[in-house]
Amino acid sequence: MIRLRPKLFRGRHFQDEIIILCIRWYLRYSLSYRDLEEMMAERGLRVDHSTVARWVLRYAPELSKRMRRHLRRPGSSWRVDETYVRVAGAWTYLYRAIDSQGDTIDFMLSPKRDLVAAKQFLRLALWRSDAGRPRVINVDGHPAYARAIADLKESGELGVRCRCRPVAYLNNIVEQDHRFIKKRIAATLWFRSVKGAVNTIAGYESMHMIKKGQVRWLAKGDIAGQVRFIHQIFGIVA
């Protein structure tokens, strides 16, 4: 019986399972593309590091898109913060939001840290994550957040009772959560293009969500189940 290959992988030289294995390992662990080239060579497979890079850019955003529909809904107490990422030789801002339990809500890469970016990120988090309206948004001391939240309340996008809470120590949880993403970014030696950065970071964030147990029916430590889940959403039969 001939197995029908998922449309997403048709025309690829390597098996679907090999492609997903390389993508999963790259996004989850602090590995370079050349590390994966060597690891595949140990298994008798000649996979060039540039091929793995193309796989990541193609399938990482697809992982993010397909995974989101399976996530549990985050809480109503948000923690919002930004960190630095170097892209094409310039420093950019990675906006991130998590809830009080540490579940990732959303992320956004922006060239600026201002009112426009803050408002755009909050709108993105409200729309894309299906998170519902938060009752409180904890922020750092950056004044753009307070203005952005006030504007979104005035437009009706946030509830009128939503509080902007600038308490620095309450944002420790999101600052600690940055570490996984920044550790993975550091292993890449930064990014050469904005598109590459956005696509790759989407994959990092997705694997981080899965690792943290945000998929509704998967336990945090169920590694085998998490692998099966990734195969399932890509239509790969184990």
What distance separates the N and C termini? 16 Å
Q: Mean pLDDT, rounded to whole units?
A: 89
Rg from Cα: 19 Å
Strand % is 5-15%
Query: Which sequence of strands runs across the widest sheet?
Result: 3-2-1-4-5
Q: What share of residues is helical?
A: 40-55%
Question: What are the main properties of this structure?
Answer:
five-stranded mixed beta sheet; globular; 8 helices; 5 strands; 238 residues; alpha/beta
Tell me about this structure.
With 238 residues, this protein is of the alpha/beta class. It has eight helices and five strands. It has helices at 16-28, 33-42, 49-68, 115-128, 143-155, 172-187, 194-211, 223-233, and strands spanning 77-87, 90-99, 104-110, 136-138, 163-165. The mean pLDDT is 89.
Protein topology:
Elements: H1 16-28, H2 33-42, H3 49-68, E1 77-87, E2 90-99, E3 104-110, H4 115-128, E4 136-138, H5 143-155, E5 163-165, H6 172-187, H7 194-211, H8 223-233
Parallel strand pairs: 1-4, 4-5
Antiparallel strand pairs: 1-2, 2-3
Structure summarized in a few sentences:
With 238 residues, this protein is α/β, with parallel strands linked by helices. The protein has helices at residues 16-28, 33-42, 49-68, 115-128, 143-155, 172-187, 194-211, 223-233, and strands at 77-87, 90-99, 104-110, 136-138, 163-165. Strands 3-2-1-4-5 form a five-stranded mixed β-sheet, with helices on both faces.
